[in-house]
Amino acid sequence: MLFILVISMTLSAQGFPKPYLTKHFDYDTFTFKTRSDWGSKPATSVRPLTLPVPYVIIHHSYTPPACQTSDQCEEAMRSMQEFHQVTRNWVDIGYNFAVGGDGVVYEGRGWTNIGAHASEYISVSIGIVLIGDWVSSVPPAHQLQTAKKLIAKGVELGYISRNYKLIGHRQVKETECPGQALFNEISTWDRFEPNVKRKS
Question: Whose C-alpha in 1, 128, 135, 193 is 20 to 30 A from the C-alpha of 161?
């Protein structure tokens, strides 16, 4: 009972909506850091996703650049959130999750909240950003593998449809993202969908 009370008080003090608190022990195949772990600011509002989602959308951050250490990747997360909230006036960091060059998954908007990463597809997708510029080079193998493990965990937990379609950001918006090299890479992954249509 005391443990539950402490968690509840922590949430209240930090102002994070409950869906953002994701248990560490759910993630046994990779390291997972919650919003509080990387020092996020509170979201100003949240909108729930209808689950399970039928799409997973892959992004690159371009800037900030690739990070290799926990300190670098946590700083990258704070930098992206600052840019999204302050410069773009979004309610939070745009992505549901990020994967760093340290092989760690970083919680963004989480499994249950609509992101701001792919125009009309945000209400039907989980957006995953691989931190770095992947125009001409592919992310390290351990970063790619962690992204795949995250997707598999989302399916296992029921947040992502077992029949999901994997796409790159450029397929639903006029953008270079997720970088040509990374796009070429994900086009070889299971459940990649080459023929998705833009909604506008």
Answer: 135
